Amino acid sequence: MSDTIHEFDVLKTAETWAGEGRSLALATVVETWGSAPRPTGSQLVIDADGNFEGSVSGGCVEGAVVTEAVDVIEAGEPRMLEFGVADETAWRVGLSCGGRIRVYVERVN
């Protein structure tokens, strides 16, 4: 499945869930470095019960993002989340799973 189709599905799900009266947050990848499995612009929609659709990391940090998103829905304050290795030394020592991802989480309704 292409990222364009995947993103469409996330937005379609958000529209459907909003129509059902669910409170929602949208998580969007805003920066990556290294081996992040999802490109900038990838999204995850989350409802207040922790249900979600989409992906911001291919499963690496989705659980943490969902937890933060539920808090964002309740508090109404957006958050910038950062996960991963913080500097380039990881690549010099051969950590193949190194990298960093920044995800912006905001309430959308």
UniProtKB/TrEMBL annotation:
<dbReference type="InterPro" id="IPR003777">
    <property type="entry name" value="XdhC_CoxI"/>
</dbReference>
<dbReference type="Pfam" id="PF02625">
    <property type="entry name" value="XdhC_CoxI"/>
</dbReference>
<feature type="domain" description="XdhC- CoxI">
    <location>
        <begin position="17"/>
        <end position="84"/>
    </location>
</feature>
<protein>
    <submittedName>
        <fullName>XdhC family protein</fullName>
    </submittedName>
</protein>
<dbReference type="InterPro" id="IPR052698">
    <property type="entry name" value="MoCofactor_Util/Proc"/>
</dbReference>
